[in-house]
Amino acid sequence: MAEENKLVPRENGSNGAVELVPNTPRFASFELSPREPHLYDYLLILRKHQWLILSFMLAVVTIVAIATFRMQPVYVATARVEIDRENANILPFQGADSYDYMVDSENYIETQAKILTSETLVLQTIRDSGLTARPEFSVGGGPSEAVASGSLANRTRPPELAEFLGSLSVRRVPNSRLMDVSFESTNPQLAARIVNAHIATYVEQNFRSKYESTTHASDWLADQLNDFKIKVQRSEDARIAYERQNQIWTLDDKQNMKPPVHRCPKRAHEERIALRVR
How buried is residue 60: exposed, middle or buried, by Cβ count under 10 Å (0-12/13-18/19+)? Predict the structure, then answer.
């Protein structure tokens, strides 16, 4: 207490009281900059926990190895198909292909890709290739109602479609008109069989659509030709009736001036006598 306080002489005019002034010790301050961690520090940490790290790595490798050996291999069968735009010039007339200028080629290819993954085409593939006998594509030991009837109208989506579409993939080859259609399965023969059947169903549907378009065009032409024949016949009948009504005789390739003379010999004889008298 005596070391911390000291006597200070009073100033003039003070009342003689003694003031104790605390003497606070002063210490020098130093700023320590933090040391950057060194590689050796990390090595020390790894060495300290080396058994824990090795145990964790061994457990992960063991789990992955067991899962790999128990997992069934998945095979991917791929078929490549070329997408060509069908010629819209069904009618052999000039200007009948105006549809080509309205439809973009890129949109056509994207449309065909959507058709390849459509539920209608998948349903047709399942029915035609007999996949309903496989346990992957059957429900309760038999096909669903939609697959059996071949129609999705007013029916819920069957589980066979979800199973099929989950394994089906369609990818376009860049800068080309080629499509890669792939199917995944644990059975390589089944995967190849399904992808070939799906491509065959797609080609058959395209041919059927083209045939129906050609048939409709042919029927339309036949109807138009019959209408033109009827109109021409009516026009011809009206012309003949008008000529008969107004006694107009026409000269064409099928007619000449002799038939009227032969049909009226008496009248022609009288005209010749009248000309001689004059």
Answer: exposed
